[in-house]
Amino acid sequence: MDNADPALMEELLEAVEAVARSGAFTGGAEVEAFEEEFAAYCGTRH
Length: 46
Prior knowledge:
about 45 residues, about 65% helix
């Protein structure tokens, strides 16, 4: 992502770090939020 927006890159890195530090790679609040947002984006329930 060399050409990525620096603000977006910082946001992505912070999100990845938060998940890594929590140890919640399968489940947890961040994963649940991602699943819900991705399902909405795809137009499906889950």
